[in-house]
């Protein structure tokens, strides 16, 4: 990528709080002048983007809390790379100060300048791993007593992992987490269906281990002539942690990496294929008089019997002036939440292929018309299904190789959770 000229931290009014000039060709005055003009045009929809060009300078910025983090360049830089880098800067600063805002930056400006010197050199991104940076750039709480030297990770090709890590028991925990986003209209038609997945790892491994991970990826399975024996899936929008060797993956679809120590997201992916709703909810409203209304709700699990959903919460919208609801449920319990104008139906354990009922009766002020009952707010559902994935994602193998020859224990867990899961009332 082309080099970045300078990094700036601006307050909410566009005034420079902290700046780091890497190439000497963009001044603070230019940036403040540009940004004040940009803020004046906030009402203009075309000026809302995070990438702007003005007077020969490209500006890329993001907002966090009450500050802006901005990169300026006179060269044709890769805007997407700069946006990722700015988010990494925010991550590093939050790691140090917990809250990234104007006051915390002013209180720790010396540390901020030290960090800006390390994360970018002459306009090129360098080290953005907060754990590695915290080994040699210390705040008051982590000040080193002995003379410090840069950790090996800084001078290493593996910048995300330090050498000399030692554990008594070597373990790897891998969670396959899939989040289901669903929107169903009042006619029962699926408007939006999406699955966002992530492979979340926690490593407790000694030394510099080499890990290899195999998935039931269709491209890999077909290349190995195994697609008929194992269910294969099509992955879209795959994003890897920087530790993954991308050239190796593009060549033979093998996920090979030296992992960071601790917790990280190895990979995220998306599936846009339409999935069958896992929990289906139907609600029918009956008006017995102008002041008495009855709601009949049917919740049905549409996954296999061997799976069980836990922590199920169904939020049923009620009219804002509903009073004295009486509720009967065939399972779980329901609670009226007036602050949400909703009835919250909680089911701790919801087995697959089961159906449960809720009957609620509530009163309305008689002065209201019948139209007051017709609320357009959707039914919202939250749930978790352990040992289950919507996509059929499977970890075929996880190999850990280290030159000392120790045996590591890999633990794999699958879970599906509800994201934006809404069903509109008919």
Structure, described:
The model is unreliable at 141-150 (pLDDT under 50). The strands form 5 sheets. This protein has a 9-stranded mixed beta sheet with strand order 11-13-9-8-23-21-16-19-18, with no helix packed on it. The radius of gyration is 27 Å and the shape is globular. The two termini are 53 Å apart. With 426 residues, it is an alpha+beta fold. The chain has helices at 28-40, 79-97, 102-107, 109-119, 130-133, 152-155, 218-223, 246-252; strands at residues 6-11, 16-21, 51-54, 57-64, 67-73, 120-121, 124-125, 171-184, 190-204, 210-215, 236-240, 255-257, 262-271, 279-287, 292-301, 308-317, 323-329, 333-337, 342-351, 355-363, 379-386, 395-401, 409-423. Helices cover 16% and strands 42% of the residues. It has 8 helices and 23 strands.
Q: What's the β-strand tally?
A: 23
Anisotropy-based shape: globular
> In what range is the share of β-strand residues?
35-45%
**Poorly predicted runs:** 141-150
Radius of gyration: 27 Å
Separation of termini? 53 Å
What structural class is derived from the secondary structure elements?
A: alpha+beta
Main sheet characteristics: 9 strands, mixed
Work out the helix count: 8
Task: Output mean pLDDT.
Answer: 84
Numbering strands along the chain, what is their spatial order in the largest sheet?
11-13-9-8-23-21-16-19-18
The helix fraction, in percent, is 10-25%
Subcellular location: Cytoplasmic vesicle, Clathrin-coated vesicle membrane
GO biological process, one term: vesicle-mediated transport
Organism: Salvia splendens (Scarlet sage)
Main location: membrane
């Amino acid at each position: 990528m082309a080099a970045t000229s300078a990094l700036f931290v601006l307050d909410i009014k566009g005034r420079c709080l902290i700046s780091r000039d890497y190439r000497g060709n963009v001044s603070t005055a230019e940036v403040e002048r540009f940004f004040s003009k940009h803020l004046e045009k906030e009402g203009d929809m075309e000026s809302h983007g995070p990438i702007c060009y003005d007077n020969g300078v490209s500006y890329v910025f993001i907002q966090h809390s009450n500050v802006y983090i901005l990169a300026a360049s006179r060269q044709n830089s890769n805007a997407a790379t700069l946006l990722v880098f700015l988010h990494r800067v925010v991550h590093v600063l939050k790691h140090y100060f917990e809250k990234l805002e104007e006051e915390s930056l002013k209180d720790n400006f010396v540390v901020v300048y030290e960090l800006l010197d390390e994360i970018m050199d002459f306009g090129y991104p360098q080290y953005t791993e907060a754990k590695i940076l915290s080994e040699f750039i210390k705040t008051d709480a982590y000040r080193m007593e002995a003379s410090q030297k840069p950790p090996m990770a800084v001078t290493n090709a593996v910048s995300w992992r330090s050498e000399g890590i030692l554990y008594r028991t070597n373990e790897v925990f891998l969670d396959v987490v899939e989040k289901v986003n669903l929107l169903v209209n009042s006619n029962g038609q699926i408007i939006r269906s999406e699955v966002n997945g992530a492979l979340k790892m926690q490593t407790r491994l000694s030394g510099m281990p080499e890990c290899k991970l195999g998935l039931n990826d269709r491209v890999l399975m077909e290349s190995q002539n195994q697609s008929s024996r194992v269910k294969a899936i099509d992955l879209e929008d795959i994003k890897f942690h920087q530790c993954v060797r991308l050239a190796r993956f593009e060549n033979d679809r093998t996920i090979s990496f030296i992992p960071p120590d601790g917790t990280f997201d190895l990979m995220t992916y998306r599936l846009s294929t339409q999935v069958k709703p896992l929990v289906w909810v139907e609600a029918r409203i009956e008006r017995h008089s102008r002041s008495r209304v009855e709601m009949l709700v049917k919740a049905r699990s549409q996954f296999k019997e061997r799976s069980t959903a836990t922590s199920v919460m169904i939020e049923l919208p009620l009219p804002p002036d509903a009073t004295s609801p009486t509720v009967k449920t065939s399972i779980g319990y329901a609670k009226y939440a007036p602050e949400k104008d909703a009835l919250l139906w909680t089911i701790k354990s919801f087995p697959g292929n089961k159906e449960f009922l809720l009957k609620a009766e509530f009163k309305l002020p008689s002065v209201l018309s019948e139209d007051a009952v017709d609320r357009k707010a959707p039914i919202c559902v939250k749930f978790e299904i352990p040992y289950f994935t919507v996509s059929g994602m499977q970890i075929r193998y996880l190999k850990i190789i280290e030159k000392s020859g120790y045996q590591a224990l890999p633990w794999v867990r699958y879970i599906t959770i509800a994201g934006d899961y809404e069903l509109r009332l008919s």
